[in-house]
């Protein structure tokens, strides 16, 4: 099963609630929620208060991508705010296994995120505890960047590891996903596709159906796989 996860980083923050309702009504599956701290990454975005505010608007899963350092202190706040998935970068945690445990103890699904240059060996002793692996196909910090093709090799390697483990682990890709590359990304093994600028830059303002076309086009590409 393929899931489309619009990244609200590229949404119109002045109309965030409407953006979320409209994008889910257009057929998207998951809300991808990018948290940046101006420390681990050179940008500053949104926190648990915004997660709590959008939680009542949708039954869709909220997929919190933490780009913060340190990680642990903020995890319970996001769990209380209604996050379903919480993912973090291994470089930002001093104790990766502990952070995974903390996320799961809070009742959330746990994900580990790999930057373009982060080696996959961080999976070696924790894959069986993870619910999601997120491969970054851009360097974290900004929407609208170009897809880094090496991410395809990484996806293939992780897909093999997940299949060999026999566990059901989501494999998510994040960065530069568009209609012209989503099928190739799916063929490399991803099942969950974050798309920020591709979705939120499409369509005209104030049309509640403005995201229908782009979400359908992304799905049509996936149907070809
Ligand atoms: O985590 C990040 C960036 O750090 C992403 O989730 C971006 O928001 C994806 O945006 P596009 O590359 O799809 O525009
Ligand atoms: Fe993200």
From TrEMBL:
Keywords: Calvin cycle, Carbohydrate metabolism, Cobalt, Isomerase, Manganese, Metal-binding, Zinc. It catalyses: D-ribulose 5-phosphate = D-xylulose 5-phosphate. Pathway: Carbohydrate degradation. It comes from the Bacteria. GO terms for cellular component: cytoplasm. The active site is at residues 34, 174. Binds 1 divalent metal cation per subunit. GO terms for molecular function: D-ribulose-phosphate 3-epimerase activity; metal ion binding. Transmembrane segments: none annotated. Its EC number is 5.1.3.1. Pfam families: Ribul_P_3_epim. One of its GO terms (biological process) is pentose catabolic process. Its cofactor is Co(2+); Mn(2+); a divalent metal cation; Zn(2+). A divalent metal cation binds at residues 32, 34, 65, 174. Belongs to the ribulose-phosphate 3-epimerase family. PANTHER family: RIBULOSE-5-PHOSPHATE-3-EPIMERASE. Catalyzes the reversible epimerization of D-ribulose 5-phosphate to D-xylulose 5-phosphate. This is Ribulose-phosphate 3-epimerase.
